[in-house]
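Hi all, posting the design record for the shared folder.

TITLE: backbone redesign
STEP: 1 of 1
STRUCTURE INPUT:
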C-alpha cells in the first residue's frame, strides 16, 4: 500500500486543476454561428449592390483603323525610307519605285505631241485645204465647156464628127468630177484639222498625245508612294530594295493615329439599360495600373454570329440556347500615357445608370 500511493499521486495532482477550470460559455459558440452567416450575407449584399447600375466584360480588345498601302504602278523598289514601327506623318515619303521607265514614256509622249503638231501644220498648208486644186479643177471645167460649145457649133454645121462631140461632152463631165473630188478632199482636210466638242480648240491628235504625256507624268509621280495619313508602320517585311512591286498589291500596313477605340462584346442580357453616351471605364491587362475613361459610341447592329463567315443555323438538329454577344464600340476620352497597341485585351465597365434607354 505504501508503494501504491506514489503512483496515485499524479492523478490526484491532475485532478485539482480540472476542478478549478472555468465553466464553458455556450453563448460564445452560438454567437459565432450567427455572426459568420450574417457577415457572409452582408458581404454578398454589398457586392450585389456594387454591381447595380453597371455592366462589365473582359471580352474586349483595342481596335485601331488600319490602311493597307500599295503602289498604283509596278516596278522594282529603288529606295526605302521607313521600317516596321516608324511613326510617319500624312504625305511622308515611304518608298520609291524605279522612275526611269516612266521618264522614257514621257519622252515618247513628247515626241508624239511634236509629230501631231507637225502634222497639223502640214495639213494647214496642204493644197487640199487651201483650195488650189479646186481652182484648177474649175478652170478645167470652164475650158472643157468652151471646147464643148465649139464642137457642138461645128457639129450643127456639119463640120465635126459625132466622136468629137461625145469626147468634148465627156471632157466636161470629167472636169466637173475633178472639181467634186477636190472639194471632197478639202472637206476631209478641214475635218482632220477640226476640234471636237470634247476638246474644243485643239486638234484631236495633239490632244491624244498630250493625254498620253499626262498619263506618263501621273505614273511618274506615283512612283513615290507616300503615307495617306499619320500613323505607325507595320508589316513592312516585303519593303525591300529590288523587290518587284505589283500594282494594287499591299506591301505594308499603316496603323492610323488617333483612331484607337475599344470593341467590347457584351452579353445580350447586359444591353437592357445600355445606351449611347454612357460613361465607361477601361482597364488593360498589359498595363494593370492604367485606367482610362470612355463613352459608349455605338451599339452593334447585330450579334457577332450574324456577321461571321458561316452564321449559325439553328433550324435543324438539336438546339442549345447560347447567350449571344453584341459588339459595343467604346470611344476613349483623353490621351493615354501609354502606347495603345491594337489587339490588347481590356476590361470595360459601362455605368448604365446614366441616360438609360426608355
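Okay, here is what came back for every position:
SEQUENCE:
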Amino acid at each position: 500500500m505504501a508503494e501504491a500511493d506514489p503512483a496515485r499521486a499524479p492523478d490526484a495532482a491532475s485532478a485539482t486543476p480540472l476542478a478549478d477550470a472555468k465553466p464553458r460559455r455556450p453563448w460564445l459558440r452560438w454567437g459565432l454561428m450567427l455572426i459568420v452567416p450574417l457577415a457572409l450575407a452582408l458581404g454578398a449584399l454589398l457586392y450585389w449592390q456594387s454591381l447595380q447600375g453597371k455592366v462589365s466584360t473582359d471580352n474586349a480588345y483595342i481596335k485601331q483603323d488600319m490602311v493597307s498601302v500599295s503602289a498604283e504602278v509596278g516596278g522594282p523598289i529603288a529606295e526605302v525610307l521607313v521600317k516596321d514601327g516608324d511613326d510617319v506623318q500624312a504625305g511622308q515619303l515611304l518608298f520609291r519605285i524605279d522612275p526611269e521607265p516612266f521618264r522614257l514614256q514621257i519622252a515618247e509622249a513628247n515626241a508624239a505631241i511634236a509629230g501631231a503638231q507637225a502634222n497639223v501644220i502640214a495639213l494647214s498648208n496642204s493644197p487640199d485645204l487651201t483650195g488650189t486644186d479646186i481652182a484648177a479643177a474649175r478652170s478645167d471645167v470652164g475650158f472643157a465647156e468652151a471646147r464643148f460649145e465649139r464642137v457642138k457649133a461645128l457639129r450643127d454645121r456639119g463640120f465635126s464628127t459625132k466622136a468629137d462631140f461625145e469626147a468634148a461632152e465627156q471632157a466636161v463631165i470629167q472636169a466637173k468630177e475633178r472639181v467634186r473630188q477636190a472639194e471632197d478632199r478639202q472637206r476631209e482636210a478641214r475635218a482632220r484639222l477640226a476640234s471636237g466638242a470634247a476638246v474644243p480648240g485643239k486638234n484631236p491628235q495633239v490632244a491624244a498625245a498630250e493625254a498620253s504625256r499626262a498619263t506618263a507624268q501621273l505614273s511618274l509621280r506615283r512612283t513615290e508612294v507616300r503615307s495617306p495619313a499619320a500613323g505607325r508602320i507595320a508589316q513592312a517585311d516585303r519593303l525591300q530594295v529590288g523587290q518587284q512591286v505589283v500594282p494594287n498589291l499591299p506591301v505594308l500596313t499603316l496603323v492610323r493615329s488617333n483612331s484607337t477605340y475599344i470593341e467590347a462584346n457584351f452579353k445580350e442580357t447586359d444591353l437592357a439599360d445600355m445606351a449611347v453616351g454612357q460613361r465607361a471605364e477601361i482597364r488593360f491587362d498589359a498595363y494593370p495600373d492604367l485606367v482610362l475613361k470612355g463613352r459608349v459610341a455605338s451599339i452593334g447592329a447585330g450579334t457577332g454570329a450574324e456577321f461571321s463567315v458561316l452564321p449559325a443555323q439553328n433550324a435543324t438538329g438539336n438546339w442549345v440556347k447560347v447567350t449571344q454577344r453584341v459588339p459595343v464600340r467604346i470611344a476613349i476620352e483623353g490621351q493615354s500615357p501609354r502606347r495603345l497597341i491594337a489587339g490588347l485585351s481590356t476590361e470595360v465597365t459601362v455605368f448604365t445608370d446614366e441616360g438609360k434607354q426608355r
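COMMENT: The longest helix spans residues 162-193.
Let me know if anyone wants the other runs.
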